[in-house]
From TrEMBL:
InterPro entries: Glyco_trans_1. One of its GO terms (molecular function) is glycosyltransferase activity. PANTHER family: GLYCOSYLTRANSFERASE WBBK-RELATED. This is Glycosyltransferase. It comes from Bombilactobacillus apium.
Length: 148
């Protein structure tokens, strides 16, 4: 059995936060939100940076483009707690195991972390038709070019 296919109950419980040390990635609010979680949750869950062993992807960015970790988590059918910014919503709009939060609101992040603990594993995963966006973009550019 592939590690990614292992049922979540057999994996260690982690919140996963893939990030570089840039201010807009919102480390400060995430750490503060984690500190507000109930003690029993804090002792059971850890914050780690290893994608294959995580239970829940935490994505609190204030600014993003595509958000590759979102796609990776969706391919692994992991639950996601993510900021409610437009690029994140666009990438995850059809995903069935996600909770959104206001990335500027520490209490909202903390509530979303708690809510994400109740999310079932995704039944859908990453939909390949979402990956066709660039082809549509280039087809539209070609059509505009021909029309000129």
């Amino acid at each position: 059995m592939n590690f990614a296919d292992r049922p979540i109950k057999y994996q260690t419980k982690y919140f996963f936060f893939p990030s570089t040390a840039l201010v807009y990635k919102n480390h400060q609010n995430l750490v503060e939100a984690c500190s507000k979680l109930p003690q029993n949750i804090k002792s059971e869950y850890q914050l780690i940076l290893t994608i294959l062993s995580h239970s829940i992807l935490v994505f609190p960015s204030k600014i993003e483009s595509l958000g590759l970790p979102l796609l990776e988590a969706m391919m692994l059918k992991r639950s996601i707690a993510a900021s409610n910014i437009s690029p994140v919503i666009e990438v995850t709009e059809d995903y069935d195991s996600i909770t959104y939060f206001d990335s500027d609101n520490v209490e909202a992040i903390s509530r979303a972390l708690l809510s994400s603990l109740e999310l079932p594993s995704s039944k859908v995963g990453f939909k390949e038709d979402k990956a066709t966006g660039w082809q549509v973009f280039f087809d539209n550019l070609e059509a505009i070019k021909k029309a000129e």
